[in-house]
Amino acid sequence: MKKLWQLFFGNLRKQLILGMTLIVALMMATFIWDMTRRQEIAEIEQNALQATALSHSLATSSAVWVLSRDYSGLQEIVQSTSAYPAVLYAIVLDLGGQILAHNDKSKIGMYLSDLPSSSAAPELRQTVGTIDVLSPIILGKKQVGWVRIGLDRKPFKARLIEIKRNGLLYILVSIGISAVLVTLASRFLTRRLYAIQKVADAVQSGRPDVRVELSGNDEAAKLARQFNEMLDSLNQREQQLRSFYELNLVGLTIISPEKGWIRINDCLCRMLEYSESELRDMTWAQLTHPDDLAADEAQFNRMLANEIDGYSLEKRFVSRSGKSIPVQLVVGCVRKPDRSVDYVTAMVQDITERKHFESEIRNLAFYDPLTNLPNRRMLSDRLKQAILSCARNGKVAALLFLDLDNFKALNDTLGHATGDLLLQQVAQRLSAAVRECDTVARLGGDEFVVMLENLSAYPMEAIKHAQLIANKIITALNQSYQLGQHTYNNTPSIGLVLFDGSEQLSHDDLLKQADIAMYQAKKAGRNSIRCFDPRMQESINNRVALEADLQHAIDTGQFILHYQSQLDHCGNIIGAEALIRWQRAPQRLLLPSEFIELAEETGLILPIGQWVIDTACRVIMSWQHCESKKHLVLSVNVSAKQFQQTEFVSAVKAAVKKHGIDPERLKLELTESMLLSDIDETIAKMKALREIGVRFSLDDFGTGFSSLQYLKRLPLDQLKIDKSFVRDIAEDASDRTIIRTIIAMAHTLKLDVIAEGVETEMQRQLLIDYGCNHFQGYLFSKPQPIEQFDAQLQKN
């Protein structure tokens, strides 16, 4: 069967010839069979029509003779009909079936019994050898007899056999012609493919430079070009592999389990510091580091046992000089037909440099590059281990969080390079001040952490030991530093927290607690130690909750304004100061001192301050529509962070325009501390708002460090005397002198003066005597809702 298959289907050309020949033969056979079948049907129909027509003619011509019983005339008609080709018999019968005339005269007078009772049309009967037609003889509308004609089918069958013989001949001729044409066509179509195959056979036989030479743009030409490109690519790769081996980029060797070393390249010789002949006298085990030999042999034995076909691992070789060389070893094998190892290939790459880079990457990942101390990541890992260790052995450990005092000032004055020198020396002193089992880490900036492990099983002894080490650190860090040409003194602030693994605290929680304690040390005056107190955390938690509630208050509109009236020396209300309140709960109203500082620190003062300005403008707008209120001026406090915003001026202008108020009815109160950051920018913003009419008052005057040089440049309208001077004006001569100086200076600068915190009539009278004509304080009213302020205004 295999040879038969090869004979007919051995190649593409044979498959094409056989397939096309079969297709043509099938198509021609189908065509000839269909043509023969149609011819047979046509012949049958033609014979039937001929018989029917002959019988009808005989019936028509014999009708009168039957009725007249003229047998001789009938016989003549029958004899003339039987002269037609293939007529076997022609018969005329009466209605009873008696033969009146027959081409065989011997049968005249006989009867036929297979006649139908009656028939209006001819009846056609076909047998294997004959076609029989029985037709009625009609005269007028009356049947008078029968006519029967029989035709011989043998000539017809002979013609059919001849047609089929000719059809078979046509089929054979067609198959022969198609086979010749298909053979020629297949040779033409496949000759280009055979050209490719010929080149492939040549390459396989060892001629890699042979290429297919075909022109054109048909599929065969494209395939030839792609085949040539593939051969070029394979040759190029082979050259590269050969060049790779010859370039000695990695150590390469071929080893036979029976014969030993077969081939060794120069790179491996240089790597191991042996000549090729010396290596051939050594074993693989002699070159391998003793600690890595077992792993290598285990893999090699698995390969010999046919469990694997190769392996890769990191190991160390030992060179002639005894140097340990880390390498990446890739081993493969070529097997014999019985699956035993024929020879082994090994690629050896020196990864010393890679190991060095990995070590550097690890140092960068876990150590601070400036001080070479563990960084936050390594500290976190060690702290987690320490927590587990404390829980296991019952010992107490401690965490010291250190921050250098005034380190920013050193960076700003002497530069970051000097700051780095200080950090490096601090790291050295910290490492020298603690035990070897302790960990010193740098978190970043000027923040360091010292973790003290295995202090004691008793908390009191542990804290004493931790404080002893902390004091030792402070003493070490208080010593003078020599930073280049500069001698510098620095102090640390240290937060201390104990842990024993039973508190269920994470390492992040412990760091936060130590950080909190460190900030308490800074608040206590720096250069000190503070232990973490749970009340510190409670205070932090309350602060976090307050911040969240403050954000919620902004989102839900829980703020309101109270208004404290401002009067002139005659007792007339000339305006008011808008003071914010926080309705944190239905029965709990918070004053600014309870939340403004937090709002400043978190940046929430910005939306709060904008809300105050918008609300104040809305109130001024309502006053403008009332004759008795349109003269009132409303003062609004502005925070430093709010005023420093780039868009502050545009925001105020937008609020004024939105509510359509007279800008002169809006007074912005600034504090002296706001003037110190950027006086030029402050003046520019004040002038931009002063141009549209907005007024300015300098709040808490006398408590800051205002410069007269700045004061004369500021577009102010008013100075507000701080209530700390007003409170003791009747008893303290110094306060009276300060107030008189402030009033005199304001008059010199042509500024209005208002005193806040006026609570007694004596204070008011003294202020009037000194030249102050505007007042604000509990003597006149407390800060009150707008409804009560309106009632006071009506009463006034």
From TrEMBL:
MF (Gene Ontology): ATP binding; cyclic-guanylate-specific phosphodiesterase activity; kinase activity
Species of origin: Methylomonas koyamae
Protein name (Swiss-Prot/TrEMBL): cyclic-guanylate-specific phosphodiesterase
EC main group: hydrolase
GO biological process: cellular response to nitric oxide; phosphorelay signal transduction system
Subcellular location: Cell membrane
Recorded topology in the membrane: Multi-pass membrane protein
Sequence ranges assigned to domain PAC in this UniProt record: 311-363
Reactions catalysed, as given in the entry: 3',3'-c-di-GMP + H2O = 5'-phosphoguanylyl(3'->5')guanosine + H(+)
Keywords (A to Z) from UniProt: ATP-binding, c-di-GMP, Cell membrane, Kinase, Membrane, Nucleotide-binding, Phosphoprotein, Transferase, Transmembrane, Transmembrane helix, Two-component regulatory system
Domain HAMP span(s) in chain numbering: 187-239
Signal peptide as annotated in the record: none
Family matches, as Pfam families: EAL (PF00563), GGDEF (PF00990), HAMP (PF00672), PAS_3 (PF08447), sCache_3_2 (PF17203)
Major location category of this protein: membrane
Gene Ontology CC, one term: plasma membrane
EC id: 3.1.4.52
Family annotation (InterPro entries): Biofilm_reg_signaling, EAL_dom, EAL_sf, GGDEF_dom, HAMP_dom, Nucleotide_cyclase, PAS, PAS-assoc_C
Cofactor(s) the protein requires to work: Mg(2+)
Cited PANTHER family: BIOFILM ARCHITECTURE MAINTENANCE PROTEIN MBAA, DIGUANYLATE CYCLASE DGCP
EAL domain residues: 543-796
Domain GGDEF: 395-534
